[in-house]
Amino acid sequence: MCGNPRDRFQELVGRPPEEAKFFWTGGPVQVAERTFFASMFSGVTAFETDEGLVLVDTGMARLAPGLAALLRQVTPAPVHTVIYSHGHVDHAFGLAPFLLPGQAPPRIIGQRRMLDRFARYDRTRHHNAALNARQFDGCASASSGEEYDTFGYPKHPPNLLYDDALDIEVGGVRFSLRHALGETDDHTWVYCPDRGVLCPGDLFIWGVPNAGNPQKAQRYPWSWAKALFDMVALAPRTICPGHGGPVIDDPALIARMLTETGEFLELIVERTLRLLENGSPPHVDVVRAIELPQSDSPWLQPVYDEAEFIVRTVLRHFGGWYSGRPSELKPAPRDALARTVAELSGGTERLLERALALVESGELRLACHLADFALEAAPQDPRVMLAVAEIYRRRAAGETSLMAVNLYRSAAAYASEGRPFA
User: Fold this and answer.
1) Cα–Cα distance between 24 and 54 in angstroms, integer?
2) pLDDT, average across residues 94-117
3) Which among 97, 101, 292, 395 has the fewest CB atoms less than 10 Å away?
4) pTM beyond cutoff 0.85
């Protein structure tokens, strides 16, 4: 069940990862004078100056040696300053391979909330390993997440913290750092005005923004949109994103990319709040009633996250965890509810028959509800386990976002083990 998420995406979605651009891998690419970009799942930008390198992000620990080797093809300069766009494991945990033997320790800059993030990761280390195993590998158990069990404090945490804005100069080259609530609460985007290069971190990823991640902490699409519009105002010539390939010396295209992404987020937020203001209906009704924005632009395809999940992020922030359904305020145990539903249906066999018939008619959402009841009512029944696993494999095959694909694959794996909850 586990493996390389890029390969699995290609297998399930039926098109090469490069087409989606989110999975772009390559480099080193010269994006401006003495400025280079490389990416292996996440991107690293190196600005060479007369005092040394300024790195924006350092990649994931297990991929960083490859990234460092790519950049060392074009610059032998020591690392002077590192800027972490945010504290996620694929951006702030890979510095060591970039450092030259015997070089002076670099200045490492992060937004002040980053240390709280690392403390949270350290306290929930195994929890995060399990979440990431499901999100990226579709794995069936927390033990499958051992390779993700590197959360906590990175080996090289920030040694310079800032709050809202910080302007620095290295070797005569200026850098503007700005804090934004976006995918995280500790996000920094960086602009180098002397070279016209924008490093937005994960505020731009060649896909629907990761603003609705079902398993992770609160995201902030309303502030995220504002940050994108602030970037547009600077008229950058080149963009080096957190994921995906760069766009070089094309300010008109970059402005369009950032503007459309900001408007996409803004539209979801406004439509969600408008419905909430209409009597605060149950959350499930809000999600169903919203007309989700669509786009043909390659930078707004649901390859990682998707619009429906972003609606739920807005609901969680403005509406809390209560769904609005009275029975769900203090619900009965799920297994007791499942057994009751099974009894009323004539047994788990009848539930499964109906669920499978719904699958064949294309009503996968409804089929999954019945499948859950069947598995929760009889988790060790081999036929139930087999049938529910197949239903969730079919559900995964029909999805486009990596998030949904892998969580449904994880659900299939759990079902095959007789475990109702993924």
Assistant:
1) 22
2) 97
3) 101
4) yes
